[in-house]
Amino acid sequence: MRTSWCILFESIRKEIFNMATIKFSHDTVVFNSHFNMNSFLESVDSFLKTMPDCRPKGVAEQIRPKCIVIYFPIEFPPKRILPVVLNTDDAGSYRSSTPLHLVWPHRWEHDKGPDEFCTLLLKLLEEKVAFVVSILGSHTNDIPVVLEETISKLGSRVLHRGPVSKEEYWCILMKAHVVVSTAKHEFFGVAMLEASYCGCYPLCPNRLVYPEIFPKECLYNTDQQLFRRVKNFSHKPESARIAAAELQVSEFKQGIFFSFFFC
Predict the structure, then answer these.
(1) Among 134, 157, 179, 191, which is disulfide-ready with 200 (CB 3.0 to 4.6 Å)?
(2) Exposure of 230 by Cβ count < 10 A (0-12 exposed, 13-18 middle, 19+ buried)?
(3) How confident is the model at residue 31 (pLDDT cuts 50, 70, 90)?
(4) With a threshold of 0.85, does the pTM exceed it?
């Protein structure tokens, strides 16, 4: 029998709910993360119960044996980007010539948590923490008000805002120290992996797909924990990239292994 593949990536997930019964005819159902797969299987039966008619039972149980995970392919720069060279004083301690550079490389949409990120930035500003930030990512004309107001308050601390060319994007990630996610909805997180590959230290919420990909030391449970981690890095900004390079790299399950030193 010819094997047919049903690619279940985030962009078509909503349609998959509406076509769940069709999946019985496929031999293999592919998801881009275990979190994506599990969240679909845990909710598909209850969703189908809301349909006015044609409500098959046990869909998750019948689809589950066909499910596999293939992680989303990421195109990294052609050459491995080396960590920045640290400056040290005579005692061997790190000296920082620039303030902590945060990067938030996400769509300017509410599901990416701009409110939480802006709360972090304003708290850093209030406590006079030295930092600059690049707020990257695409956006429509309907920009969240909280982002507009925060960017205005930060003034020259905002080094970049909005989408940039791919070449400039990689250059920014090479220079930044810490990449932050405040997402409320994420099935994979390409931008976080791109920034991590370029040497940024990743700080992610301990939810969604992130525990599947990043080591525990990169995860935070509360906004206060995130603030403390960022503030600690601000004392020695360059050490964030060194810490990123020393991380025991993320494991991609089912025999797939991703390394921050992958080349």
Answers:
(1) 179
(2) buried
(3) confident
(4) no
